[in-house]
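Q: what does this look like with zinc ion bound?
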Amino acid sequence: MPNRTNLSRILNLIFSTVVILAIAPAVVAQKKFHIDYTVSIASTEAQLFHVTADVQNINEPRLELSLPTWTPGWYTVENYLKNILRFKVTDAKGARIEPTMIRKQTWLVEPKGLDRIRVEFDYRADVLALNQAKITGDFAFFTGTELFLMAANHRNSPSTVRFEMPAGWRIASALKQTDTTTFTAPDYDTLVDSPTEMGNFDLTEFEVDKKPHYLVTNPAGAFSKDKAAKFAEMLAKVAKADGAIFGGLPYEKYVYFYFFTQAESNAGGALEHNNSFVAFAPPGQFATPEMIIDTASHEFFHLWNVKRIRPAEMWPYDYSRENETPLLWVSEGFTNYYGNLALYRAGLHTRERFIASVADAISGVEGSEARAYISPANSSVSTWVGYDTPLAFGISYYTQGQNLGALLDLSIIHDSAGASRLDDVMRTLFRDFYQKGKGFTTEDMIGIINRLTKRDYHDFYRRYVSGVEVPPYETILGYAGYNVETTPQESFTIGMSIENTPQGPIVGRVFRHSPAARVGLRGGDHLVSVDGYDFKTESPKALARIEERIGKSVRLAFKRDGRDQTVDLPVDAQTDAGYRLSEKPNATPDQLKVREAWLKVGR
Ligand SMILES: [Zn+2]
């Protein structure tokens, strides 16, 4: 207990601190730097956004404004400046101020005593893709990275965005809404990580843990009300299953943006954001809740893994250049693993299907020749060479990391005698890194696993993460009483995906250096026939024909821009490692305990 003198000194200290605190916020609030944006649809015909940035309370002689060169999650430099027209800086009265471009996409403005400037430009939005912006007569879409300028040293300043759009259009945004057309962001990173869609679309609202969730589907009518209701139910189950790992959902609202159409660049598929994701799904017969829930489950887990639990090299994001990290095998691979695990935990996939996904990941890694010389850590760093094609380097850190996710989960359960598992690693990364405002390193992760298991995992990481050794599958899956069997099978590849649309089958993705790429096929080409078998009416025969021509080629007829064309498409051989897992008939009680801990549903 303090004596009297000390007590009065302490009271004095408290008193003066209170006085200072009471005065300071009022002074700061008045002068706080912030940017008010307006985003208007200047022309649907010319596909132009008009963007103004009203920069207020400037109190510095030099202000650097920059536009991102890439969109987090899609690891490709796009240089959005390419789409900007009529960039202009003025003072409050409209007099021009000439900015100097000091780096690619970075302007230096010298306000010369002005506390307020206005920046405006037009943005050509003519590509519908995950990391691009698009305006049509029916809708407008952008992410934020394309339109919003970052002010150096003011990354944590708040901003507001007001939208102006054609009459009758509605709006859905991951940003926080304050009135019909005004939204806010607490900081720049939230601002550019929150997609917005305006126009005609279908909207389904549902609640999880009393938080609003919005399913936005475009074009209107493409995804029926029944399908949307069913899908919302499935999404809610996934949200609950994932939320249970982390003690709840760390956002105020969540938005699922769906485009049931073909992406207009190779940035198709789906992309995660802070409290939303954007996905392209093939229109037609595959646009069902059951077909699209796998991707949704993957993207949803990202709201923790990579958006919040983030490699140190990307904390904070450097929007001006590539952000290489050796940890994408965790960010993407564990997200694959948890995408499957959540579907199982949510009761949407069977236990058999989950086990098959684990075996498929082993096949994916072990069937690849490149696994012998590209480690998961190295394939993570190299993604910037070509994120658009996972086959660019022969092996994908998505599959490598999914495989390691299962192996680490089982090892941790085994080594901690069932006390811990990978969930605990993720929860610790969330609590001790994200919630403390920082990213994590490989060493941080090993430290967490070592503490949980009281073992040393450096050797595991040296062999299987930074190294290319084949993991001891029999041993680790044996912990849970599984046999690992393999029957390698020769299969074929033509290097492209085929998507069914109401107009018939079309080419989806074309993988680089593949047969389809070599003969110049492109996404969107309409497939007509193969060696005379019609793709629309005889598709099983057409596919069987391709399969029987391994090592040879087929005559492929297709239509591009309405014109008939043909190519001789080579059919390459590919080896499927054919891994399967089966339950050991004589599993020991210890093995059954590990299996039960691994496949337990609920807490
Ligand atoms: Zn992903």
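The CA atoms of residues 529 and 535 lie 5 Å apart. Residues 1-29 have pLDDT under 50 and may be disordered.
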